[in-house]
Amino acid sequence: MHKILFKFLVVFVFVFLLDQAIKLAYVSGYGRYEGEFFSLILTYNFGVAFSMFSFLGENLKFIQLALLVAAFMYLLKEREILSSNTTAVGLIFGAGCSNILDRFVHGGVVDYVFWHKWFEFAVFNLADVMIDLGVVLILWHSFFAKKSKI
């Protein structure tokens, strides 16, 4: 279990620090970029995906923090899930904690990537991409783990 927790912590810390470093650059006045496919702009999201639940205001960060703590406690109890998806869980939790820290420090999540080629998409950040990647890895693992048992 120690190796699993160490691997989880390495992934968690890497994603958390990288995401916070990029956000710090934008908050500190990093320049804008206007491209054909995407733009780099500074914006704050006071809700969750697509600004949903922004009506919860300050309570949202405490709800999200409680959900992350509860999920981690569950994963510590259900060690098989954590051990079979260590990297993915580290990605999700590192990114999630980085976004929650934004809420405490900046009042909202720091977002900066705006995709606008073919369609306009919500503004997002590296943490959002890492959460999506973690979910894809879990689904990928689940699909192939079940397939190999048949």
UniProtKB/TrEMBL annotation:
Membrane-spanning segments: 82-101, 121-140
Pathway(s) the chain acts in: Protein modification; lipoprotein biosynthesis (signal peptide cleavage)
GO biological process, one term: proteolysis
Gene Ontology MF, one: aspartic-type endopeptidase activity
EC category: hydrolase
Chief place where the protein resides: membrane
Catalytic residues of the enzyme: D111, D128
Reaction(s) this enzyme catalyzes, per UniProt: Release of signal peptides from bacterial membrane prolipoproteins. Hydrolyzes -Xaa-Yaa-Zaa-|-(S,diacylglyceryl)Cys-, in which Xaa is hydrophobic (preferably Leu), and Yaa (Ala or Ser) and Zaa (Gly or Ala) have small, neutral side chains
Subcellular location: Cell membrane
Keywords from the named record: Aspartyl protease, Cell membrane, Hydrolase, Lipoprotein, Membrane, Protease, Transmembrane, Transmembrane helix
Membrane topology of the entry: Multi-pass membrane protein
Enzyme Commission code: 3.4.23.36
Entry-linked InterPro entries: Peptidase_A8
Recorded GO CC terms: plasma membrane
NCBIfam families xrefs: lspA
Family listed: Belongs to the peptidase A8 family.
Function, as annotated: This protein specifically catalyzes the removal of signal peptides from prolipoproteins.
Name under which the protein is recorded: Lipoprotein signal peptidase
Organism: Campylobacter californiensis
Lineage: Bacteria, Pseudomonadati, Campylobacterota, Epsilonproteobacteria, Campylobacterales
Gene designation per UniProt: lspA
